[in-house]
Amino acid sequence: MPAKLSVNLNAIAMLRNRRDLPWPSVIGIGRIALAAGAHGLTVHPRPDERHTRHSDLPEIRALIDDEFPQAEFNIEGYPSEDFLALVEKHQPEQVTLVPDDPAQATSDHGWNFAADAAFLTPIVRRLKKGGFRVSLFSDADPAGVAAARDTGADRIELYTGPYGSYHSDSAKAAKELERLGKTADAALAAGLQVNAGHDLTVDNLPELARRIPALAEVSIGHGLTADALEYGMAGTVGRFLKACGW
User: Which pLDDT tens digit goes with each residue over 79-130?
Assistant: First the structure.
């Protein structure tokens, strides 16, 4: 089965937040994406709420529950106590833990699983006890997979930023793709499922999907939102679904 597509709404929220106005509607755009066939919605509610606001979360949860019950809600972020409380309040199907500093513009690296194991393991245990699927943001490094598995997580999410950044250098992109592939191979062999996200486009997704045919999910925001300016959100979701292999 091809990778499922989760639409990250942060870029939509950031555009809305430029003015003290309710448009573009994060919920309205999420509804269009799901109606067009997206399998879920992703948000990253940072402490300063510069993108998704905390007040968006109950509305997204209600949108999925009331109109698209087959879809999934994925909340990602740094696992502070405040973040964990948000997760437990709004009950996403998946929680993706990222090692972000609050000041970062966006996620730009994965966990050091060996060094962070003592920190992550009790958090993963708490989330699993709450019934959440847990995914951990991961660099393209097969050596870290065993430690990621030992935290008790269900999945890793491959950080594909470097792969996406080589959009004009096919040789470097191919080399990075193989690093991602080897990390996915190691994760799958260890019993982890594999997600991916960051700077994925309709141009680089097909190669990623071919190299990692067992890819479970891709979470895409920036590139998808940029394309939506040209093709509309519904048309863009269709393009990305096709790029995934649907």
Answer: 999 999 999 999 999 999 999 876 666 667 899 999 999 999 999 999 999 9
pTM for this predicted structure: 0.96
Q: How far is CA 174 from CA 52, 128, 198, in A?
A: 33, 36, 16
Going from the C-alpha of 81 to that of each of 71, 86, 107, 110, 124, the distances in angstroms are: 27, 9, 19, 20, 13
From the list 84, 90, 87, 170, the residue with the least C-alpha distance to 119 is: 84
DSSP output for 160-208:
-HHHHHTTT-HHHHHHHHHHHHHHHHHHHHTT-EEEEESS--TTTHHHH
Q: Hey, what are 13's tokens?
A: 């929220």
Catalytic residue among 44, 90, 157, 217: 44
Residue 107's H or E segment, with its range, is: none
Q: Considering only CA atoms, which of 181, 238, 225, 179 is closest in space to residue 199?
A: 225
Q: What separation, in Å, do the N-terminal and C-terminal C-alpha atoms of the chain show?
A: 8
Whether 44 is a known active-site residue: answer yes
Q: Which residue has the tokens 């870029």?
A: 11
Is 90 among the residues known to form the active site?
no
| Residue 149 structure tokens | 């598995």
**Cα–Cα distance, 72 to 64 (Å, whole number):** 7
Q: Which of 76, 157, 176, 217 is catalytic?
A: 76
Give the whole-angstrom CA distance, residue 235 versus residue 36.
8
81 is catalytic: no
CB 126 within 8 A of CB 79: no
